[in-house]
Amino acid sequence: MTASRSSVFFREGSVMTPLVRRVLAVSASIGVVVAGAVVAPTAALAAPAPAPSAAPFLAPYYTELDVTGDAQVTTADLEALAPHLGATSSDAGWADAAGFDLDDDGAVTASDLALLSERIIYDDGPFQIVEADAVAMQAAMNAGVITSVSLTQQYLDRIAAYDKVVRPTGVRPLNSIITTSEVALKAAAAADAIRAEKGMTGMLLGIPVALKDNYNTVDMPTTAGCGCWNGNQTSSDATMVKGLRADGAVIVAKASMDEFAINLSSQWSAFQPDGTALTVSSPYDTTQTSGGSSGGTGAAIAANLAGIGFGTDTGGSIRIPSTYNQLVGVRPTVGLASRDGIVPLALSQDTGGPIARSVQDAAIALDAVVGEDAGDPVTARQAGKVPETYTSYLDGESLKGKKIGYIASMLGTNPITQRLFAQAKASMEARGATVVAVTAPDGFSAIVGEGSGSGPEFNHDLQNYITAYLNPAVSARSLLAISQSPNIVPGRASNPYGQRAAVTASTYQAWAGPQGSHTLQLAKGKQIMTAFMDDQKLDAVVYPTGNPYGTIGTNMRLSPNTGLPAVTVPMGQGLSTEASTGGVNLEFLGRDFAEGPLLGIAYGFEQATHARTTPAAYGPLG
Ligand SMILES: [Ca+2]
Ligand SMILES: [Ca+2]
Hints:
Elements: H1 17-39, H2 75-81, H3 94-97, H4 110-117, H5 134-143, H6 148-162, E1 177-180, H7 184-198, E2 208-212, H8 239-246, E3 250-255, E4 267-268, E5 278-279, E6 281-282, E7 285-289, H9 295-302, E8 308-313, H10 319-324, E9 328-331, E10 351-356, H11 359-369, E11 403-406, H12 415-430, E12 434-437, H13 444-449, H14 458-469, H15 479-483, H16 493-501, H17 505-512, H18 517-535, E13 540-544, E14 546-547, E15 550-551, E16 566-573, E17 583-589, H19 595-609
Parallel strand pairs: 2-3, 2-8, 11-12, 11-13
Antiparallel strand pairs: 1-3, 4-5, 6-7, 8-10, 9-10, 9-16, 13-17, 14-15, 16-17
Helix pairs in contact: 1-4, 6-7
Residues 101, 103, 105, 107-109, 111-112 line the site of one calcium ion (CA).
């Protein structure tokens, strides 16, 4: 039966290459079982189809041959097909069997069974947690090699062994985690029970996730990195967190962050002695910070302390830790994922999004958190613009025929970055893309010249969060009170906190009100960049996210100052003969709500380059 396996159906560049090695064994083992059922006179008819799951996963490849209607291929589909083996189109009862003739050759044979079996996400090979992606975790859990409980325990063990410890080649601890969950193992057990009863109901079922500590969680405090908010146990989850839990994710930890998401250094004071702070380190070089403000998420995911992470980005805070830590980061369109229940910095530009070790993981994670939410009215913009699943865009050949533009001034002058960009350009061209230098549109300098809302908006937006969510027992209930607290990162009392606490309501309105200068400039920025991509027939604009352990000019402002989505992907590292061995990411900017096509292009680039490396000091536990 293996001889007839589906060279026709197997898609070039499929998302599943790690599992292909197990397909033969799966086909063979299940085929034997089913063959036994065929000769039994009492072979059961197909069970009634369960209701389709809300979000098909890894569509279309792993869903299109489903015959039981649950949007996944499992052994139940093989059992449904089995009674029809041997049926041909000349049989009287062919109408009942025709749906199982998957290769459309007029007969239900072992070839059809093989086609089905290779769409089962199943891998009973050895499981290695370091660099494991969500699909590998699902496959190992489906096969019974691991459980969500054992997986979650492994991440908790890694956090305990690595996070607050200086590694032999290191200088500082990572300091990437503020709180680990005391109920994660219970949530994992619940996910295991769901799998036992219903199968893999979604790609996040049982996957351990780390959240930046500005996402409200009912089972851990939300400090925003500040000791002044140690007592902020909220009574509800952020909307995005509800989405993650609904899809079966296990929230394993709250990641550290730059206090109140202000800076890139990721310094934080939560649960530290008065007047002291910790700094997050990059697992690749612990003399460096991991970037910010979502630096804890970046360090934790890079060091494999959790499966997938989430950060927030106002002016670079997802993308900068991603480039510092060789990770994929998604800054979604403002309006794709609700910010309700996330400690704000500037709602004109705040976004929450995934930070992951692969584009596929990022797409899977994004699926769980999108949606309209009355708690964040800007999400009404997304109506009709969100695909059923972002995984359907993950095509290894996605770069073919694409036109990608870059603006020369955004490349900067760092020789490492320039070398890596030239390599990235060649890689994209080798995959069939046209990569062209384009002249920046009129108005571009005003777009990237517009400042961040974090100054004029923070006081206003934070106060609304405090009113809605801050635990009543917390005494620092205004930015002014925060500035006067002894439990903050040293040196921040008067600037930025005191200064920003002095921003008045009228200043806020003149900036971020309906006719405010910032509101109008952001709308203009979106209009200009969209018309520019249309005129130049560009599928995306690319630029380096930064230099090794640094940023480039105003590159980080293009996405927040237009509201347009950006996906950042590793493109390489400096060599030992160069000035730094740090990583540098390539960032793809696309149209409003074009996360799908953008993730597709990013996936094609990732598959062409595979530039991410594993931090050597954080390997498997001994
Ligand atoms: Ca099925
Ligand atoms: Ca057939």
